[in-house]
Amino acid sequence: MIKYIIKKILYSILVLVGVVMLVFFLFQGFGDPSRLIMGQSGDSTTQVNIRKELYLDQPKWKQFLFYLNDVSPVSIHSREDIQKKNLRGIFIGKNIKFTIKLPYLRKSYQTKREVGSVLMEALPGTLLLALAAMIIATILGIPLGVIAASNKIHGWTPPRFLEAL
Fold first, then answer.
1. With helix as H, strand as E and coil as C, how does the chain read?
2. Among the four residues 25, 28, 86, 147, which has the most C-beta atoms within 10 Å?
3. d(CA 130, CA 69)
4. pLDDT tens, position by position, 120-137
5. pLDDT class for 39, splitting at 50, 70, 90?
6. Residue 66 phi/psi, 5° resolution?
7. Averaging pLDDT over each range in 65-69, 88-92, 138-142, 156-160, which range is the top one?
8. How far is it, in rounded angstroms, from Cα 75 to Cα 66?
9. CA torsion 86→87→92→97, rounded to 10°?
10. C-beta separation of 31 from 37 below 8 A
11. Per residue in 17-32, pLDDT tens?
12. Distance CA 45, CA 9 (A)
């Protein structure tokens, strides 16, 4: 039993790492974020500064490690990084700190707001939509399932409302 649980935990970690990698590399193909931030009127100096601030001047593998460090609940951050990103969690160490924290989802390129706050703002509407969809699926699904099951036992005949079609 323990072997089965460990196997499932390892598979779930692999799936989680795969999803994080997929998200990172998919967003790499959407264009240069520095162009999104500065708009059409920015000059090359502004673009270089924005790219440096977002670590876009680093190689892709290094950008991925920075992304993993931000998204992961267990990571390593400097004291300045913790203050700059306003991280919340448990920090152990002096200048370089081992952290157990809430994931840092960075800031939106377009609105300059924390992505976590944007997601939390959309959460009530998303939950309401999901609840409504589940209620509709239940109200329609149970009677249709009963009809399908009863017709399966006696052989299939179309319901009367389908005969008119």
1. CHHHHHHHHHHHHHHHHHHHHHHHHHHHCCCCHHHHHHCCCCCHHHHHHHHHHCCCCCCHHHHHHHHHHHHCCEEEEEHHHHHHHCCCEEEECCCEEEEEECCCCCECCCCCCEHHHHHHHHHHHHHHHHHHHHHHHHHHHHHHHHHHHHHHHHCCCCCHHHHCC
2. 28
3. 31
4. 999 999 999 999 999 999
5. confident
6. -65, -40
7. 138-142
8. 10
9. -70
10. no
11. 899 899 888 887 777 7
12. 47
Cβ pair 50, 38 in contact under 8 A = yes
Q: How many CB atoms are located within 10 Å of the residue 90 CB?
A: 9
Whether 77 contacts 97, CB under 8 Å = yes
pTM of the model: 0.64
- Range 130-150 average pLDDT: 92
Selection from 58, 36, 34 nearest residue 48 by Cα = 34
Tokens (6 digits) for 96: 């370089």
Place of tokens 């267990």: 74
Residue spans of the domains in the chain: they are 113-165
Going by C-alpha positions, the residue among 27, 73, 72 that lies closest to residue 54 is: 27
- The stretch 27-41 carries a mean pLDDT of 75
In tens, the pLDDT along 106-118 reads 777 777 788 888 8
